[in-house]
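B., you asked whether I could sanity-check this one before it goes into the benchmark set. Here's the sequence:
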Amino acid sequence: MNSIKHVAIIMDGNGRWGIKHKKSRNLGHKEGLKTVEKIIKTTIKNKIKYLTLYAFSTENWKRPKKEINFLFNLLENFLLNKISDLNKQNIKLKIIGKKNFSIKLTKLLNSSEKKTSQNKRLQINLALNYGSKNEIINALNIIKKNKLKINESNISKNLFTKNTPDPDILIRTGNTKRLSNFLLWQLAYSEIFFEKKLWPDFNEKDYFKILNNFKKIKRNFGNI
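And here's what the prediction gave me:
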């Protein structure tokens, strides 16, 4: 039976859910945050140590400014109201991506990381302004600057996810079957589960079913 150290999730479908229910993409983002909290609880119950959530990609800047502002306000409120609770639960928050945000949000992200930096129960990697191609180029530039040899080990050590095991599982909700520039290097041998449900409809039972299915998969990593 396969053990699970790291789950990565592309939380797709918030906007479509909001349009479907109340003709408001923003409502879908708000509801999606409730799903995040449920999935964090289930991840802890299953003693999984790493959870990476794709929250905002480098391509998402193409969205309407009002929607982007709503998303970041939602994130600010979540951190202001929940970071103490996450800290009490021994949860570490790490931001992966480039922090090109407002001064207020950047300070809040930095303080949240600092406050939870020593926690060991679960590490949540929140992918914000994240693009995997940029991440790999950034790693190669660091290697070049430090005159290191270009190899798998040195690239992995200079990614945003350094010191984190590669995901065992990738889940993408929203009935879309693509990676969308997410963890392209790290997902080389991950088991991928595409889920038809939109993210706000994804629940603990759906998550638990995927975890159980993963445990039964024969993983060869190129072997027979």
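One thing to flag: The two ends are 17 Å apart (CA to CA). Otherwise nothing jumped out at me.
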